[in-house]
């Protein structure tokens, strides 16, 4: 294990979710979570006596979860060769139509402040402020200063795990988990129809739609409809 792996493990071990959002990730829309990520400054490790706390604020935006299959995931870009081999093993084990949910997140950092107060006191004041506002979608996370984004990733993972069961139940209740004869989930068909409407009105680059059709390996089925987007 190299030094980077050791640091990552240490950052994960030091991460604590001090306040969880009171709501799960919504199944049929976007979830906007405000976070306060608190850390002790890295220089305190040098033995300095100053009592300060770093507060990073921002938003984690969770897009509507999508039903996907190992075949679909294997066609996504940005994965290593080892990851692709793992996807191939999933396809062999569970079949190319095995279902899962794909969650897409983006982090929108807002600001960072260093306050002259110890971490427990800072957290207590943040909790009081959140309670006063009555915001159900705010979280407080404690992390390691030099690897604070690891703490945010751990929070995202745990939030996803917490929401997964409800999301699947709600999708199943609407019939979105149903597969057609080609192994395409009803949710994916509905998403593609929506993308066609967006492409027709100029809200979506047709190339994004084409990529989605290729990932599902169904472009020939939609080819005429796709080409009609370019006919005047």
Summary keywords:
8 helices; single chain; elongated; 232 residues; five-stranded mixed sheet; two-stranded antiparallel sheet; 46% helix; 3 domains; alpha+beta
Explain what you see.
The chain is α+β, with helices and mostly antiparallel strands. The protein folds into three domains: 1-65 and 103-175, no CATH class; 66-100, no CATH class; 178-232, no CATH class. The chain has eight helices and seven strands, in the order αββββααββαβαααα. Strands 1-7-2-3-6 form a five-stranded mixed beta sheet, with helices on both faces. The protein has a two-stranded antiparallel sheet with strand order 4-5. The longest helix is centred in the last third of the chain and has 26 residues, at 148-173. The N and C termini lie far apart (59 Å). 20% of the residues are buried. The model has no long low-confidence stretch (mean pLDDT 88).
Summarize the structure.
The protein has 232 residues and is of the alpha+beta class. 46% of the residues lie in helices and 19% in strands.
List the helices and strands and how they pair.
Blueprint: H1 3-14, E1 16-19, E2 31-39, E3 53-62, E4 66-68, H2 70-74, H3 81-94, E5 100-102, E6 105-115, H4 119-133, E7 138-142, H5 148-173, H6 186-200, H7 206-215, H8 219-227
Parallel strand pairs: 2-7
Antiparallel strand pairs: 1-7, 2-3, 3-6, 4-5
Q: Ends: how far apart?
A: 59 Å
Oligomer: single chain
Structural class: alpha+beta
Count of alpha and pi helical runs: 8
Sheet-strand content, in percent, reads: 15-25%
Mind summarizing the main beta sheet?
A: 5 strands, mixed
List low-confidence stretches. Answer: none
Strand order of the largest sheet: 1-7-2-3-6
Return the average pLDDT rounded to an integer: 88
The tally of strands reads 7
Order of helices and strands: HEEEEHHEEHEHHHH
Cα-atom radius of gyration: 22 Å
General shape: elongated
**What is the helix content?**
40-55%
How many domains comprise the coordinates?
3
